[in-house]
Write a structure and sequence with these properties.
- The protein has 345 residues and is an all-alpha fold.
- The chain has one domain.
- The chain is 78% helix and 0% strand.
- Helix 3 (38-46) crosses helix 11 (249-258).
- The longest helix is centred in the middle third of the chain and has 38 residues, at 180-217.
């Protein structure tokens, strides 16, 4: 049976670490909607298909639908995140380490936003969870490398498939003799579809963290907490949507104006390529990065359309991607050690 809202409130009241974990998860969802979701609407905004505020509202609504619709029928992405690492040492220590992992994600995402770099909260989540779990008694043996294998496979596929799909979508649209206005109007459902699958992917990942927290509070770490309660899906969706409504113009400018120059046709091609890749990954249960998929699709479009691509900007984005795993793992580890020393001396 799914965990009811009343049961969760009762657990949180009797377990302050669980309540704090819950609040940090909401904060991470807010940050994800703020820093990650803008990628979905970057093309529509920079080409003028939608004004910024209307595009943000569209992304927020589609994030909600993505979380609710896809998670209701396929929760395999959440299951992968739930089982990424084993948190040992008893409920207080395990929840304290989980709080450290959430703190690492917020710090990393905030730093990336300051520089306008679209990093992946998905990969930050995986690395932060692993680093925090390693800081407990289990060491490296607590990391479930089979689940990590899914994440790394998703990383490779999201970058390669995103670039390939964007390139071929652009080449396919070259033969379509539409007016610019038609391409612009077509970008609206394209941006909506990309935002929908962002919600489907990233919303599920943090649902997995919520469920992990409730399991750890009960002194267990099994994987039998599904199906996901409806109230939790709604809550995650709303906080992600709220984060999206906070904006994200810096990231839109970075990927849609500075990294590659987009016209109406190129913007639509990037949307189509992203949707194809995210749909496939969601069906297969692979926790891919929507940021990586979207950015790779934009680069693929830029190369196929022979529009100017600023490889210096692309290089800085790629460097941030490479640093996310070791950076967030290290932050998660040391924040876990700090929290354990402060709260469980």
């Amino acid at each position: 049976m799914p965990l009811s809202f009343a049961e969760f409130v009762s657990q949180a009241v009797h377990s302050p670490p669980l309540a704090f974990t819950f609040l940090l998860c909401l904060a991470v969802l807010l940050v994800n909607g703020w820093t990650d979701a803008p990628n979905a609407i970057a093309g529509a905004v920079v080409t003028g298909a939608l004004p910024f505020r209307l595009a943000v509202l569209l992304a927020a609504g589609c994030n909600v639908l993505g979380v609710l619709c896809v998670t209701a029928v396929n929760a395999s992405v959440a299951e992968t995140i739930y089982s990424i690492a084993v948190f040992e040492g008893g409920p207080p220590a395990a929840l304290t380490a989980l709080c450290a992992a959430m703190t690492a994600i917020v710090l990393w995402a905030g730093l990336a936003w300051w520089f306008g770099i679209p990093t992946s909260e998905s990969h930050a989540l995986v690395a932060g969870l692993s680093g925090a779990a390693i800081a407990l008694e289990g060491g490296l043996s607590c990391v479930r490398w089979d689940s990590w294998g899914k994440v790394l496979l998703g990383l490779i596929l999201s970058a390669a498939a995103g670039s390939w799909a964007g390139r071929w979508a652009e080449r396919g649209l070259l033969s379509v003799k539409w007016k610019n206005r038609t391409f612009l109007l077509s970008q609206i459902p394209g941006a909506a579809g990309t935002a929908f699958f962002h919600g489907a992917q990233d919303g599920q990942k943090f649902l997995g963290v919520f469920l992990l927290g409730t399991a750890l509070a009960q002194g267990r770490a099994d994987e039998q907490t599904f199906p996901i309660p409806f109230w939790l899906m709604v809550l995650c969706a709303l906080f992600m949507a709220l984060g999206t409504l906070m904006g994200g113009r810096r990231i839109i400018d970075k990927v849609g104006r500075e990294m590659v120059t987009l016209g109406p046709r190129e913007g639509l091609a990037a949307d189509l390529g992203s949707i194809l890749c995210l749909l496939t990954a969601t069906i297969l249960g692979l926790p891919v990065s929507t940021t990586h998929t979207r950015t790779a699709a934009l680069l693929g479009v830029g190369c196929a359309a022979e529009t100017p691509v600023d490889w210096r900007v692309a290089g800085s984005v790629a460097l941030a991607w490479l640093l996310t795993f070791p950076g967030c793992m290290a932050i998660g580890y040391w924040m876990s050690r700090l929290y354990l020393a402060l709260f469980l001396p």
